[in-house]
Prior knowledge:
Elements: H1 3-25, H2 30-50, H3 55-79, H4 86-95, H5 99-118, H6 120-127, H7 135-163, H8 183-199, H9 210-222, H10 225-232, H11 238-244, H12 259-262
Helix pairs in contact: 1-2, 1-5, 2-3, 2-5, 2-6, 3-6, 3-7, 5-9, 6-8, 7-8, 8-9
Amino acid sequence: xxxxxxxxxxxxxxxxxxxxxxxxxxxxxxxxxxxxxxxxxxxxxxxxxxxxxxxxxxxxxxxxxxxxxxxxxxxxxxxxxxxxxxxxxxxxxxxxxxxxxxxxxxxxxxxxxxxxxxxxxxxxxxxxxxxxxxxxxxxxxxxxxxxxxxxxxxxxxxxxxxxxxxxxxxxxxxxxxxxxxxxxxxxxxxxxxxxxxxxxxxxxxxxxxxxxxxxxxxxxxxxxxxxxxxxxxxxxxxxxxxxxxxxxxxxxxxxxxxxxxxx
Length: 263
């Protein structure tokens, strides 16, 4: 059987397993835990399936594992003792009698398909040994580290902010959150562009740009930034925060003089 078909089957069974977990737990946000772990599973399955065992593939798989395991643990820890994430609660009410079938198709199988598109650069790297590590690899790794820093530190700053009861009803506007309204989302997009830069070192690497394009589209236009911006807009602090801080790309915050200083 074709290796890519085997990987599709593995991913199908994996997402079906997590759908079963969601039915047992009665919460669909376990899909968020499955997200990062799914990349780790497919990365190492392809690494051993293709059997090249190259240094580039090994290094990239380690990076993907660090990212995926960290993300899964972060989301798991965040969800302990809390109700189902607001996004999934809204869908539970909206979908009504079609909830179970739509959950399977739109949350789990669709997420699996998107995961497969995003991880294509990793699969290509695992399939092709390519030349020795070079400048593109180093640039890609540097971009990955830059993105990983924004995601990890952004998540940590937000978690610390939320734990303080004095911050209830307020928006985090310090640290990385003073340069971009979504440092963790920016970081996730950046690190996948870094993986793609590494993939440019192997044959046909240019064509797997579909991977970083997919995650960029999802976060910027679908389930990431738009949904969180809508939720943040309910906070009275958001209008001023939005006016002052870049939505996505980290930029120095804008400064506005108040009316008294102008007079």
